[in-house]
Design brief:
Elements (H helix, E strand, L loop, with lengths): L1 H31 L7 H13 L3 H14 L4 H15 L4 H17 L6 H13 L10 H16 L6 H33 L2 H17 L6 H14 L3 H14 L12 H6 L7 E2 L5 E3 L6
Helix pairs in contact: 2-3, 2-4, 3-4, 4-5, 5-6, 6-7, 7-8, 8-9, 8-10, 9-10, 10-11
């Protein structure tokens, strides 16, 4: 029994020492880090000053502390939004990822805030800043478009709505360019291999651009290659309809002179690997399109 009592006492003493060490460590951390000693309002003020001085990484430490200390206060709310801003302004891929998360957190926590529309706009911009090149996967691009559309839908009278609409067109052009590049690859490959399914796949991609992205800036080339794809598939009526649209919409186009006719239309094959410019000169290999 005496041995048990000694063991219990020893264990209790050990626990007390452990707690004291932990508490001392916490106190030392607060003492050593001046940010942790600040109130939410103090941290917010210093964070704003650093943000104005374009010291974005340093500002982020103060701003996120303001939020963590008082997450539901005005200072905490402003700290969270500005912490997202400090990340966004760092102009780095990983910072954009984290900024998106912070903006989303702000919207979820404060959906009725007067700044919720701005947070949604910046969230969309954080996604748009990470869009891949048109010849790569466009998942992030689609998310950016959805985020801009969400702003216009939820906040139609927002001061950022017009900018969001302009950004939407830029993002749509990216998605349209992606469809065009894939369609061109199918078109070129179908000619080299005389593969009808690939020509049909090209038509599908080109029609997607025409129907889904009517404002695409390079519509002229899409119509041109859609016309040629129908020729390659020996669909003269459809080819004539599309070529007619090309003539109507772009009467001065240099591409009109390149539209083949008759038997030549079905047999014409672009030079392997070459994407033609408006003047007919090779522009770039489709594998290297931007």
């Amino acid at each position: 029994m005496s041995v048990m009592r000694v063991s219990v006492r020893a264990l209790a003493a050990l626990l007390l020492v452990s707690v004291a060490v932990v508490l001392a460590g916490c106190g030392s951390g607060i003492k050593d880090d001046p940010v942790l000693r600040l109130s939410a309002s103090e941290a917010l003020e210093q964070g704003r000053a650093l943000l104005d001085a374009k010291k974005y990484r340093q500002a982020g430490k103060y701003l996120i502390h303001a939020f963590q200390v008082e997450p539901n206060s005005v200072s905490g709310r402003d700290g969270l939004l500005l912490a997202a801003e400090a990340l966004f302004l760092q102009d780095r891929f990983d910072a954009y990822v984290e900024a998106e998360s912070r903006y989303r957190d702000f919207i979820n926590r404060f959906p009725t805030s007067a700044r919720a529309d701005y947070a949604q706009f910046q969230l969309a911009r954080s996604l748009a800043a990470r869009m891949e090149k048109p010849n790569r996967d466009q998942e992030t691009t689609r998310k950016a478009l959805a985020a801009f559309e969400e702003l216009v839908r939820v906040y139609p009278t927002s001061e950022y709505a017009e900018q969001a609409r302009a950004e939407q067109q830029h993002v749509r052009d990216q998605l349209a360019r992606h469809e065009f590049i894939v369609g061109y690859f199918y078109f070129r490959t179908s000619g080299a291999r005389r593969a009808r399914p690939l020509a049909m796949a090209a038509v599908s991609r080109f029609e997607t651009v025409i129907d889904k992205y009517p404002g695409y800036e390079d519509r002229e080339h899409v119509l041109f290659y859609l016309c040629r794809a129908h020729h390659r598939l020996e669909q003269p009526e459809k080819a004539a309809e599309v070529c007619g649209r090309l003539r109507t919409e772009f009467p001065e186009s240099k591409l009109l002179a390149k539209i083949p006719a008759g038997k030549e239309a079905a047999e014409t094959v672009a030079a392997p690997g070459a994407v033609e410019s408006e003047g007919g000169e090779p522009l770039a290999d489709s594998r290297n399109l931007p």
